[in-house]
Design a protein that fits this description.
This protein is α/β, with parallel strands linked by helices and 182 residues long. 32% of the residues lie in helices and 22% in strands. It has a single domain, classed as Dihydrodipicolinate Reductase, domain 2 (2-Layer Sandwich), CATH 3.30.360. The strands form two sheets. Strands 3, 4, 5, 6, 7 and 8 form a six-stranded mixed sheet that branches.
Length: 182
């Protein structure tokens, strides 16, 4: 709102945790920001949502593929995996609060024109990544799916994130003893 009133452009890198519902990121978390689209256009300013890597760069890659490489896109699976090992017992590879919010909530994905919601960690697959090897990835709620479905006419768009067994074990212990309660 402040950017609109001041007539200056806006850059957002990630949906804020306080925009989520009951500790759960939901597809509608960005809706209030999308509502500014026409206002910003009329004012001649730009509002950019999801300007990080994912969301952000990955969406640019997908848009490029739609425009230059394929006649149509059936499925987009965004897979985020960290192949490094820092030797620590437990450490997040992103902001811990955001990471814990993402990993404990139900997943949502876009399929055939509607949102699908499934319990956390219920959709897992193992994927062979070039140069990184095989990793388990889990369907996760992620703001990128919300933005991609606005611009890319795919039948299914889903975000997957890789977590090792050790990471999930520590996460489950913290959740089970109440350290991750919203």
């Amino acid at each position: 709102e402040a950017c609109y009133r001041a007539k200056v452009s806006y850059l957002d890198t990630s949906v804020a945790g306080d925009l989520c519902s009951e500790g759960q990121q939901v597809p509608e978390a960005y809706d209030w920001q999308w509502g500014y689209r026409e206002k910003f256009e009329e004012a001649g300013i730009t509002g950019t949502l999801g300007a990080g890597f994912d969301p952000g760069v990955v969406s640019v890659f997908a848009a490029y593929a739609v425009k230059h490489l394929f006649d149509e896109i059936d499925t987009i699976d965004v897979m985020d995996v960290n192949a490094g090992d820092h030797g620590k017992k437990f450490a997040t590879n992103f902001d811990p609060e955001t990471n814990m919010l993402e990993i404990q909530g139900d997943s949502f994905y876009w399929e055939n024109g509607e949102w699908k919601q499934v319990p956390c960690h219920s959709r897992m697959l193992e994927f062979e990544f070039p140069n990184c090897g095989s990793h388990k990835v889990y369907s996760m709620a992620h703001d990128e799916v919300r933005s991609m479905k606005e611009f890319i006419p795919a039948k299914r768009i889903e975000f997957w994130m890789g977590f090792g067994d050790r990471y999930l074990n520590y996460f489950n212990v913290m959740r089970d003893i109440g350290l991750l309660s919203p």
